[in-house]
Amino acid sequence: MSSLLEHKRMKLKNIVLLTILTLFSQIAIAQEGLPVYTDYLTDNYYLIHPSMAGVANCSKIRMTGRQQWFGHEDAPKLLTLSLNGRIGDSQSAIGGILYTDKNGYHSQNGAYVTYAHHLMFSRSAADLNMLSFGLSVGFIQYKLDETTFLQGLPVGDPGIQGIVQSNTYLNMDFGFSYHYLDYYAHATVKNILNNDGINTDINPIVRTDNLRRYLLSVGTVLSKYGSNWSYEPSLMFMYKDGTEEASVDFNAKVYKRMDFGKLWGGLSYRQSFDGAQYSINGNDVRSQKLQSITPIIGIDYNEFIFAYNYTHQTNEIVFNSGGFHQFTLGYNFNCRREKYSCNCPAVN
Q1: Burial of 124 (0-12, 13-18, 19+ CB in 10 A)
Q2: For the chain, how many helices (H) and strands (E)?
Q3: What's the CA gap between 304 and 239, in Å, rounded?
Q4: Which helix (H) or strand (E) holds 159?
Q5: How many Cβ atoms are within 10 Å of 174's Cβ, its own excluded?
Q6: Which of 116, 170, 280, 295 is most buried as measured by Cβ atoms within 10 A of its Cβ?
Q7: What is the pLDDT of residues 225-257, one digit of tens each?
Q8: Given this model, what pLDDT does residue 177 score?
């Protein structure tokens, strides 16, 4: 009798661990490459659009740290470090991004280098009319740590190898930006190249070879003449090619000019167009779409940037009531004169 119970217990544990492994294989699909959160709103559009490298009158260093579910071991966390700026007085620019992204047994590290070029169509230095192109090339190393999966399981389980699976991929991002007076638009294709995919015998239907993402951002900055206040409504649309998922961010920011720089804050709302089905009592099947809201606050103090944002999922079914905390530190250097008469904080 005891051996039968032990057999059932081991079988249940096997199923649970295989389910976990399948889950993290799916996470790899969703987050392979630099994840797209709302950190781009903290004066950091270069993180998602390579054409924004060197677009500003200053060179920029930005560092972000994102942590989810404080108090939970192996909770998702992301660190990024980016640098971009013009090459001398030319219309060309370069940039670079380093990041590490960890989520339980799954982790990835990446490095990108960027070249961007900016074409000016302005009639004079007072009118902003600029078309920009950017190309990023990066290496992404994916890891899945299975070393603890075999504890207490029969030797030779075909579904788990008990090692740290690792693959490294080369990929590219390409995009363009257009700035006209107080208006802007960005379009980017991320992870252009197909790769070999992640080897998994658990769910052969899962596809990891196509990680392309399409991003489209549009917005404007509004202000009365002579006012210290300005307002920036914008939206960002994202589509994942491999999984056919789509979402949109609705954003609003406000700026107040101060003697030392700027105070600013905002709000972002993300809505997914695709839902996941779930059942509470086994009979009532419901569908839930990802919804999140993110308040943002920041300060530009001379050459330094400090920002904080908090993302809260508003869905009915969530893993934890806690949300995502993200901090941004930045520094501007090699600044040139603000030469455009526009409400364009990303440029001036």
Answers
A1: exposed
A2: 1, 14
A3: 33
A4: none
A5: 16
A6: 116
A7: 889 999 999 999 999 998 889 999 999 999 999
A8: 98
pLDDT per residue as tens digits for the range 100-142? 998 877 889 999 999 999 999 987 767 899 999 999 999 988 8
Distance CA 216, CA 198 (A): 28
Query: What tokens does 231 get?
Result: 């307002």
C-alpha to C-alpha distances, 74 to 69, 104, 106, 155, 292, nearest whole angstrom: 9, 5, 10, 26, 22
pTM score of the predicted model: 0.82
Of the candidates 328, 339, 335, the one whose C-alpha atom is nearest the C-alpha of residue 59 is 335
Residue 47's SS3 state is: helix
Task: Tell me the C-alpha distance between 217 and 328, whole Å.
Answer: 21
How far apart CA 186 and CA 50 sit, in angstroms, is 10
Instruction: Name the token pair of 282.
Output: 């086994």
- The identity of residue 97, as a single letter, is I
Closest to 242 in 3D by CA, of 274, 211, 273, 283: 211
